[in-house]
Structures are given as structure tokens and as C-alpha cells.
From TrEMBL:
Pathway: Cofactor biosynthesis; riboflavin biosynthesis; riboflavin from 2-hydroxy-3-oxobutyl phosphate and 5-amino-6-(D-ribitylamino)uracil: step 1/2. The active site is at 91 (proton donor). Belongs to the DMRL synthase family. One of its GO terms (molecular function) is 6,7-dimethyl-8-ribityllumazine synthase activity. (2S)-2-hydroxy-3-oxobutyl phosphate binds at residues 88-89, 130. This is 6,7-dimethyl-8-ribityllumazine synthase. One of its GO terms (biological process) is riboflavin biosynthetic process. GO terms for cellular component: cytosol; riboflavin synthase complex. It comes from the Bacteria. Catalyzes the formation of 6,7-dimethyl-8-ribityllumazine by condensation of 5-amino-6-(D-ribitylamino)uracil with 3,4-dihydroxy-2-butanone 4-phosphate. This is the penultimate step in the biosynthesis of riboflavin.
Amino acid sequence: MQSITQLEGSFTDVDGRYVIVVGRFNHHVVDSLVEGAVDCLVRHGVSAEHIDIVHVPGAWELPLAVKRVLKVAQPEAVIALGAVIRGGTPHFEYVAGNCNSAISSLQLEYETPIANGVLTVNSIEQALERSGTKAGNKGTEAAMAALEMVSLLRQFGGES
């Protein structure tokens, strides 16, 4: 019987440059996401000198900044962080949907991992829970995903 090849990323062989692109809107939530992401990267051996943080007004502006970062900085991975909290108007759907769609498209276009840590929640309570309290820290989780994808893509050879 032939053996089955399985590939998966690890949290080794992840050195390189990482850029965190952050939407400032809802900064009281987003600041904790950034702290979690930076802590995760450093704990897994990424030098603080190889981590850049780019601030934009909000989630709507994330895709354009991510695209420019990918073109100019050519990082190993980008971590997009922000918080879109549902309100009483359809604004939430437009911002969250378009932000997520654009980030997904950029990841495929540039063949570079973009970890999506943009919270899309119904309430401030849910946002706080996901930024470091009882539901974990989605910034940390996004950084973990970025590290794992960098490691996985390196196994295919060529540039990640």
C-alpha cells in the first residue's frame, strides 16, 4: 500500500517580516487584538524588529492598506485586525462583507497569507469577549494562523 503524504504547517521555520494592519475604529477592542498578535509572533520566535504595525481608520480601509503592504513590503504574512460591531443600520453588512471579501481576494492574488482577525459581532460584549476575555483573543488566533500558513507554504518551496 502506498503511503499517504500529509503536509501541515508548524510554528517553526516562521522567521521573516510580518505586518499587522489595524483598523483604529473600536480601538478599545482592537488594541487587545494587536497585543495578542504581537505577543504570539514574538513567543514563536519572530523578532520584534520584523513586526510592523500599520494603522488605518477602520475595517473599510483595511483592504487598500493590506494591498499596498503586500506590494511594497512583501512580508511573509499580513495580519488584518479590526472590529465591526452591528448597529441599527445595514452599514455593518456592507463594511464587514466587503472587507472580508477583499481580504480573501488579496490573499489569492498575492499568494501571501493574510490572517483575518477582523471581528464581526452583534454587540460590544461579544467584541470584548473575543479580544482577550472568555472567548480567547482573536488577534492571537490570527497570528497563529499566519505563522502556520507561512510554515506550510514554505514546504512547497519557492517564495511564500
